[in-house]
Amino acid sequence: MTIMNKDVKKVLIDQETLQSRIKELGKEISKDYIAKDLLLICVLKGAVLFMADLAQNIEVPLEMDFMAISSYGNSTESSGVVRIVKDLETSIEGRDLLIVEDIVDSGLTLSYLSELLKGRGVRSLKICTLLEKPARKATDITIDYVGFQVPDEFVVGYGLDYAEKYRNLPYIGVLKEEVYQQNN
Ligand SMILES: O=P(O)(O)OC[C@H]1O[C@H](OP(=O)(O)OP(=O)(O)O)[C@H](O)[C@@H]1O
Ligand code: HPA
Ligand SMILES: [Mg+2]
């Protein structure tokens, strides 16, 4: 049974559905990265729960690194300015990168990040996102692995926040409008 948070309007994707899709993604990635030099790049903070579960379902050798990016701050709309809060520690030259994201909304974060990392001489670069909002994808970046399509509503849980809260919910839910109406 899912325990609802009082600020969540409805559960979009429950824990069981999340975990079974992540297993499938892990299988697909394992197949594609045999005999490669896989480096998972977690985009903090939102992707941290997804990355932890995904990595455990990938059956080929891999390394992990973390990058912190911020463009939403305490709002439900992208500021349009992508800020690097923490850069990678690993040299990525000649390596097979897989960027792991929680959500592609406007697409601004990923288009900025993939251009930046491509410029550092990687051998290959692919993108894996748990969620995608097709209605708002303003950029034309290619996403190689998508967990779920979600409608154009502000979602929280399983890593995704509003004003830093709700990241610990074990499901993806839609936030009640009244929670953010006064602040946006
Ligand atoms: O496609 P976009 O419109 O760019 O939005 C997606 C990005 O926005 C969120 O990050 P946020 O700036 O909230 O940082 P966080 O991961 O620390 O919450 C989310 O985790 C993605 O990284
Ligand atoms: O719908 C969302 N929820 C949480 N964080 C986000 N960052 C971009 N879109 C979203
Ligand atoms: Mg956020």
Walkthrough of the structure:
The termini are far apart. The chain is an alpha/beta fold and 184 residues long. The relative contact order is 0.21. The protein has helices at 15-32, 48-55, 108-118, 177-180, and strands at residues 8-13, 38-44, 62-70, 83-86, 96-104, 124-132, 145-149, 155-156, 172-175. The strands form two sheets. It has a six-stranded mixed sheet, sandwiched between helices. A three-stranded antiparallel sheet has the order 1-9-8. The model has no long low-confidence stretch (mean pLDDT 93). The chain has a single domain (15-154), classed as 3-Layer(aba) Sandwich (Rossmann fold). Hypoxanthine binds next to strand 8. InterPro entries: HGPRT (IPR050408), Hxn_phspho_trans (IPR005904), PRTase-like (IPR029057), PRTase_dom (IPR000836). Residues 17-162 form the Phosphoribosyltransferase domain.
Under the CATH scheme, the architecture is 3-Layer(aba) Sandwich
- Give the averaged pLDDT, no decimals: 93
Provide the spatial order of strands within the biggest beta sheet.
4-3-2-5-6-7
Distance from first to last alpha carbon: 33 Å
Structure characteristics:
six-stranded mixed β-sheet, globular, three-stranded antiparallel β-sheet, Rossmann fold, 184 residues, metal-binding, alpha/beta, binds 1-O-pyrophosphono-5-O-phosphono-alpha-D-ribofuranose, binds magnesium ion, 4 helices, Hxn_phspho_trans, binds hypoxanthine, 9 strands
